[in-house]
Amino acid sequence: MAGLGDLEASQLSLLSALVGALGQASEGTGVGALSEAMIEGLNGSIVARSLGEDIGAVVVTEAKANLGLIRLELRKLPRSSP
How far apart are CA 17 and CA 68, in angstroms? Predict the structure, then answer.
């Protein structure tokens, strides 16, 4: 497995599409606009947070990462204006 720092453009594109699809599913099911999504795997996690219309932040971590701290830091990021 490649290191987490070695993500290729195709993998980053897939992450972007995944976050977009989760946003559509969130709105389509009546839950509302996507605020945050987290995926946990055996070797790490992916945490995504919406920062406004068509903008967000995605963090890819190793398994030992402190997800609570990552989520707190993502919430400190400024949201864009519509």
Answer: 24
